[in-house]
């Protein structure tokens, strides 16, 4: 079953979160179609652009269509007085942890589908190759355009929910109430970043 990955935020904004959503491709597409039919919203689904009731709908549909998610997060306070690391290094640490956390539940053969939108093509390929080394002899890491992937769009919504929680936004209390039953049922599983944020030789665009 594919695991779709997208991130939200960045440490200058207070936190970075990353979600990996496990759901069949056709189920993700059916979820997105149902969401559009009920909400009247069409086009690319972005967590930062939808209202609270729509976030709740996405999570309810995720459960209904047999999906679940892991979320990895790090906030600025966790670094103490240390200088902020590069955005790319934080991203890679979150991605590696998310992959490592999913692998024991994939029977040793995982299909990770990662949003390609954050960095340029050269950086994307280096990150993909780096993460692919975690998969041993079976599995694949693909970078895709989120507009073409219903699963990545769902992952964006999940990641953005937990970004709001991590930075204690004005909507955090209500979002916390929305995600609580899904956390309790383990449809959503959150873990803080435990891997070290290691600098790389890869430059960051912008």
Please outline the helices and strands:
Elements: E1 2-10, E2 15-22, H1 25-39, H2 52-64, E3 68-75, H3 87-102, E4 110-115, H4 121-132, E5 139-144, H5 150-166, H6 172-184, E6 188-192
Parallel strand pairs: 1-4, 3-6, 4-5
Antiparallel strand pairs: 1-2, 2-3
Q: How would you describe the overall organization of this protein?
A:
With 206 residues, this protein is an alpha/beta fold. It is built from 6 helices and 6 strands. The protein has helices at 25-39, 52-64, 87-102, 121-132, 150-166, 172-184; strands spanning 2-10, 15-22, 68-75, 110-115, 139-144, 188-192. Strands 5-4-1-2-3-6 form a 6-stranded mixed beta sheet. α2 packs parallel to α6 (172-184). The chain is globular and about 45 Å long. It starts with a strand and ends in a 14-residue tail after the last strand.
Q: How many runs of DSSP E, i.e. beta strands?
A: 6
Q: Please, how many helices?
A: 6
Provide the spatial order of strands within the biggest beta sheet: 5-4-1-2-3-6
What's the order of the H and E elements? EEHHEHEHEHHE
């Amino acid at each position: 079953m594919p695991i779709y990955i997208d991130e939200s935020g960045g440490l200058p904004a207070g936190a970075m979160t990353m979600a990996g959503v496990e759901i069949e491709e056709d189920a993700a597409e059916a979820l997105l179609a149902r969401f559009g039919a009920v909400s009247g919203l069409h086009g690319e689904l972005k967590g930062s652009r939808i209202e609270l009731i729509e976030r709740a709908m996405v999570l309810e549909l995720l459960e209904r269509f047999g999906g679940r998610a892991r979320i990895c997060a790090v906030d600025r306070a966790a670094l103490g007085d240390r200088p902020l690391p590069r955005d790319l290094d934080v991203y890679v640490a979150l991605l590696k942890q998310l992959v490592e956390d999913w692998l024991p539940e994939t029977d040793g053969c995982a299909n990770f589908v990662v949003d390609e939108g954050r960095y340029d093509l050269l950086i994307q390929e280096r990150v993909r190759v780096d993460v692919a080394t975690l998969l041993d002899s079976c599995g694949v890491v693909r970078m895709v355009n989120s507009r073409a992937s219903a699963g990545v769009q769902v992952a964006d919504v999940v990641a953005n929910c937990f970004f709001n929680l991590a930075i204690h936004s004005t909507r955090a209390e209500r979002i916390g109430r929305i995600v609580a039953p899904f956390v309790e049922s383990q449809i959503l599983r959150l873990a803080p970043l435990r891997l070290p944020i290691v600098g790389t030789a890869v430059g960051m665009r912008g």
